[in-house]
Specification:
- By secondary structure, this protein is an alpha+beta fold.
- The protein has one domain.
- Helix content is 41%, strand content 14%.
- Helix 1 crosses helix 2.
- The longest helix has 14 residues.
- The chain is globular and about 35 Å long.
Length: 88
């Protein structure tokens, strides 16, 4: 599945703020790929799922059939989030 086209940088920033404020369930923890932003580290896929909620009113499933790590990374990079790291 391709990422929703209407997620904007502002939606991802809002998602990161929400994660900072509320945290997230550890079942959403990333395995390999992480977004670094302002000195903090986030799993790549969860902020996209939450950003989709802010943009479209629905959380995206983190299932690889719906949202892959590579598609999340591609979207994050297209929105100017360039510090994506792989942690073995």
């Amino acid at each position: 599945m391709s990422n929703p086209k209407n997620i904007k940088r502002e939606h991802v920033l809002r998602a990161l703020q929400e994660i900072d404020k509320e945290g997230y369930d550890r079942r959403y923890e990333g395995r390999k790929w992480f977004l670094k932003n302002e000195g903090k580290t986030y799993p790549c896929k969860y902020p996209i799922s939450l950003a989709n909620f802010f943009a479209n009113g629905v959380m995206l499933s983190l299932n690889a059939n719906v949202l892959t790590s590579q598609s999340a990374i591609k979207l994050l990079r297209s929105l100017g989030f360039n510090e994506i790291v792989r942690i073995p």
